[in-house]
Amino acid sequence: MNSNSNHQMKLRLCGPRGFCAGVDRAIQMVVLAIKKYGAPVYVRHEIVHNRYVVEGLEAKGAVFVKELDQIPETDQPVIFSAHGVPKSVPAKAKARNLMYLDATCPLVSKVHKQALRHIRHGRHVLLIGHEGHPEVIGTLGQVDRKDMTLIETVEQAQTYQPADADMLGFVTQTTLSVDDTEEILGKLKQRFPKLAEPAAESICYATTNRQDVVKLAAKGADHFLIVGAPNSSNSMRLVEVALKAGAKKAMLVQGAHEVPWDELAKANIVGLSAGASAPEILVNEIIEGFKSRFNATLELTETVQELENFPVSKGLRDVDLLPADMAFVNGA
Questions:
Q1: Claim to verify: residue 48 and residue 121 sit in the same structural domain
Q2: Which helix (H) or strand (E) covers residue 87, if one does?
Q3: What is the CATH number of the domain that holds 316?
Q4: For 10-31, what is the mean pLDDT?
Q5: Omega of the bond prior to 40 within 30 degrees of 0, cis?
Q6: Is 135 assigned a catalytic role?
């Protein structure tokens, strides 16, 4: 029963939204490892930044740890998260004879390779990103620390003093705001005209796609909901993008239980999207919440269709992945 049946509301659902190919691959790898090796399967850090996903995998037999020293002597596998790890982590796993599977997103691995390419060319690497984020920690850990400098803000870009201004290259965290990154890069390129680009774009296609469609859907929106976790960088950036693009209000919600339904009752247009680590089942619950409470018409705002698919590690390709295995994130 709609609580406000006379009030017409438009719910703009963004596409693409939710899981990207890298996140989907990482979750599949944990599910397949549990099917192949049985429980427990250890996972270093959250496989992706979403509590719902983590708890769903825990229910299947995954055990999440902060560091490898929390894992007992075992023949069971350990999986590295989609965000990537410093080189020291697989080295420690090998030293302990731990069997490990690397679920690092291939696009994050590409950034690692781009950074190493800069260094091979004698350049000091500027990494544009957020300090403390697992992906940034992993990228910094690919090289000797003296060979890479983290730049977080335009102010840091303005004050950074290199040893050799002619021998600089940059890479970026894959989940940054495209617009904010351009502002930082603009300042760096102004100061250092010979700043070398990576051989390929660092910000991933999924981050760019989700931000582009949110920009489109935010125009004229009274409110915008982004499904995601507070520690999800790409989800937090979507909230910022929605506000900058014209949404009167925007907020992050982890599920239907966090939606301010009373506040939305008088909204004419509400935008809805999800970060790259948020499962579709949570989006569907929110859509059902709108349909049950309001006279809401669903309208799809779509920019592109994503067809990317990253295969899982070779050692897991002999295990069949069934729709029921992923129902906890995709729904029935």
A1: no
A2: none
A3: 3.40.50.11270
A4: 97
A5: yes
A6: yes
